[in-house]
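Good morning C.,

I know you're traveling, so I'll keep this short. The sequence:
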Amino acid sequence: MADAEAGGVFVFSGEGELVKRYGEEAGVGRAWDVACAENGSVAVIVADGAEIFIFHPGITEPQSLRAEEEPSFVPVECAFGPEGRVFALGKVTSAGGTEDYRVLRLSARGLVEARIDVALTSPTGLAVAADGTVYVSDGPRRDVRIYRPN
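The tokens, ready to paste straight into the viewer:
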């Protein structure tokens, strides 16, 4: 669970017991969104941050992913997809100040492997199926867009 007000990411057991907490000391005190992978990795997006922190099992320091080819990209939602790839829904601001949303599929080094321009004004959710199909919801419009992999 991500909680910016409580100061971090909280990991619970299946029985509801707190197992681990990642906070300011790990750089995720203002955690906004969190995603979990099958291998136990945890991706965290921090409010108004440009990077995604990946916590891998057995490694104490988080990995930092930043979409280098998209310098104005600010992620707001994340998900793991096939082969543990990280998908991020985020906002891109053009030189003229226009804001658009897109989904990026990132490599383990933060390189943009795929880019989907999302034709929604205020997307609020991201999910990725096992086959790579991307689902983006737009809460205010009660709409879900489906993007199938090529």
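Safe travels,
E.
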